[in-house]
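Recall the central idea of this unit: under ordinary conditions, the amino acid sequence of a chain determines the structure it adopts. In this exercise we apply that idea directly, starting from the sequence alone.
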Amino acid sequence: MRIVQAGHFQLRKYGKGQVSTELKLFNGFVRLKHNVQIFSERDTAAYEAPFGWRDLGRGKANRRLVETCENFQPQLLMLGHCDIIRNKTLAEIRRRLPDLRIAYRNVDPLFRETNAARIKARAPYVDHVFLTTAGEAAKALGDDPAKISYMPNPVDASVEVFNNSQKAAGDFDRDLFFAGRVNPDLPRFDLLRRLTGELANELRFDTFGFDGAPTVWGLDYDRALEGSKMALNLNRQEGDWLYSSARVGQLMGNGILSFIHRSGGLELFFQDKAVFFDSPDELLEKIRHYHDHDDERRQLASAGHTYVHAEMSSERVAQFVIDRTFGNPEGNDYSWSAS
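Accordingly, the structure predicted from this sequence is:
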């Protein structure tokens, strides 16, 4: 089928944004043998604006999306967050292409009120909404709960290329890894402060983006992943059902033993494939245990690596998007489909 995929393709990161969900879904659609035309809304707005001032190009970007769909005649329009694209633009595209199906995916957390409002405003204009949070809070954001589906963060074999579960403990640059912006008002700030203090003399722990350390992107991020034995999958806020940042796929997909807060319910998928904790004390105890018991670390990390590449690959997630948007009988047994 012909697909127009509209979103933020990070063209102006110039090679530093290859882990994005947008690009993984693009890979999945292409591997499923669909013809995909990408439309980068932010870049189009900048290209079309006087002096490259993106805000002045918003109207033109909307018109260009209409033009792209009319020229390409897609069966599916796949939207990312696409804040520049107006709902009236989607209505106009549907008027011109009445058989078109429109899917919208949003990977940001629902505890951000602005994001929940964004989803609620978009839902009436699309055929299906895909969120990386499940449960009643997610269903309540649609004009029809039946058109809201949970999707996991996809893992891509061309992006998550390492398998650190196959490495011995001495083969790593660091024993424990965290990457992400950490503001002092976030719960994970205090947790990281405690962990760095208590583990400083026990293992090699690098935190990129915390306490003055620079963040890492692109190839530098890949190298940090490749050199890490274990990692923390810490969200800005814990507890939303089945929610995790895309970090979880990047860690487990590279065979890195991942520590995940239990409150989000991801044990539903990753029991015996990752390490779950409720409290800082439990987390410290388990970090020390798996640091000292490398065979157990490798076994869990290997199970996680195998599972996410088999069950949550970009191809399977892309096919799930197609199946739900078109109302196809699901020939695949998606482990998350009832969530």
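The chain has a mean pLDDT of 94.
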